UniProtKB/TrEMBL annotation:
Belongs to the ROK (NagC/XylR) family. Residues 14-54 form the HTH marR-type domain. PROSITE patterns: ROK. SUPFAM superfamilies: Actin-like ATPase domain, Winged helix' DNA-binding domain. This is ROK family transcriptional regulator.
Length: 400
């Protein structure tokens, strides 16, 4: 197992992401962009060159000193497939080693069907069959629920109706590729750590709003999983006594009050939207200045802000990142969220930053792919034997 620190490993991933997103750069440029010392960057790039993940290109034009060698991502480094599993559909992406999306697709999928595992395996195999000439390093799958470990991949999910579902073993046996399974918000958090605004922070939380409410917690650069892989389930924080029934079976959970389904239910009850209308109609009404629609979102933002104040006090992050389908209506959420969050925090924490990420549907799947892309730099062995298989494929790709 590698003896590199988790911090160094994430920086190695960040170098690849920087080169992939912005093109070739010198070691000095990379050090400035990623906020590390020139000496540390020299060590990081030495390792990446030795592993065949980056290559030296032409020299940069000299401005009086010694010409700098430019670095770029190795073209043969391989790709990864990411999968988002939802109750009614599955989304797929193929990404390069730098995290950039090469192609994407979505298919209908019924998680409650007795043939769910076979159906998912079939549509995933079809997507993998279309992968390009690059070596496929592995498959990452993000699910809404608890996962015992990335390598084993046994899933418990209220949203999917799954209990002890052997997803990892089933997919590995059928596909013949390394497969890593993780809670979808944890996977998003790793993607943020590697490629997003979280790259500049060691301690942050990722909060997702949409069909559900989730939270990924990153402390010291590591995503916290908890004893059973279910850390960060803030959607099931008890918010009110004897409130609406939640999908988990309890009453008054945060998710039962502010998920998309809950907002639609509230809006219908108040006559803000018609019985057949959904979240898009509610958002359109708020965008059009409807006070009742605006109030539904603002109240949800208020509840979210107060709940997150408790999370901030508990884990002391540097930053809160808000993501998910619900961010399409964030200006309406923010009216209630900001005052509720700030007023509920102790004075020393009230200046915490809140970043709202632009959302695309494929972001969930891209987060799942990050499970594979992070594996070659996994200093703690989180990915287990599957991680070893990914690293072996990476070594093969780098010499071919």
């Amino acid at each position: 197992m590698s003896n590199r620190s988790p911090h160094a490993d994430v920086n190695r991933s960040a170098v690849l992401a920087q080169l992939g997103a912005h093109g070739p750069a010198s070691r000095a440029d990379l050090a400035r962009a990623l906020g590390v010392s020139p000496a540390h960057m020299t060590q990081l790039t030495r390792e990446l060159l030795a592993d065949g993940l980056v290559v030296e290109l032409e020299q940069a034009p000299s401005q009086g000193g010694r010409p700098a060698r430019m670095l770029g991502v190795a073209a043969t480094a391989g790709s990864a497939v990411g999968v988002k599993v939802a109750a009614d559909h599955a989304a797929f992406v193929e990404v390069g080693i730098d995290g950039g999306v090469l192609r994407s697709a979505a298919r209908e999928f019924d998680a409650s069907a007795t043939t769910a595992l076979a159906d998912l395996t079939e549509i995933l195999a079809e997507f993998i069959a279309g992968c390009g000439s690059q070596r496929l390093l592995g498959v990452g799958v993000g699910v809404p629920g608890s996962v015992d470990s990335q390598a084993s991949g046994v899933v418990d999910s209220v949203q999917l109706g799954w209990a002890q579902m052997p997803l990892g073993a089933t997919l590995r046996r059928a596909l013949g590729h390394p497969v890593l399974i993780e809670n979808n918000v944890n996977a998003l958090s790793m993607a943020e750590r590697l490629y997003g605004v979280g790259r500049a922070h060691e301690d942050f939380v990722v909060v997702t709003i949409g069909t559900g409410v989730g939270c990924g917690i990153v402390l010291g650069g590591t995503v916290l999983r908890g004893a059973s892989g279910g850390a960060g389930e803030i959607g099931h924080i008890p918010a009110v006594e004897d409130g609406p029934l939640c999908s988990c079976g309890n009453h008054g959970c945060l998710e039962a009050l502010i998920s998309e389904g809950a907002l639609v239910r509230t809006a219908r009850e108040r006559g803000v939207i018609d019985a057949g209308d959904g979240i898009a109609a509610l958002r359109d009404a708020a965008d059009g200045g409807d006070a009742g629609a605006f109030a539904v979102f603002a109240e949800a933002g208020h509840r979210l802000g107060r709940a997150l104040a408790g999370v901030v006090h508990t884990v002391d992050p540097e930053l809160v990142i808000v993501m998910g389908e619900g961010t399409a209506a964030w200006p309406h959420w923010a009216a209630g969220f900001e005052p509720a969050l700030r007023s509920a925090l102790i004075p020393a924490r009230r200046g915490i930053g809140v970043a709202v990420e632009t959302w695309q549907d494929e972001s969930w799947a891209q987060g799942a792919a990050a499970l594979v892309l992070a594996t070659p730099f996994d200093a703690e062995g989180i990915a287990g034997a599957e991680g070893e298989l990914v690293r072996a494929r990476l070594r093969e790709a780098s010499v071919n």
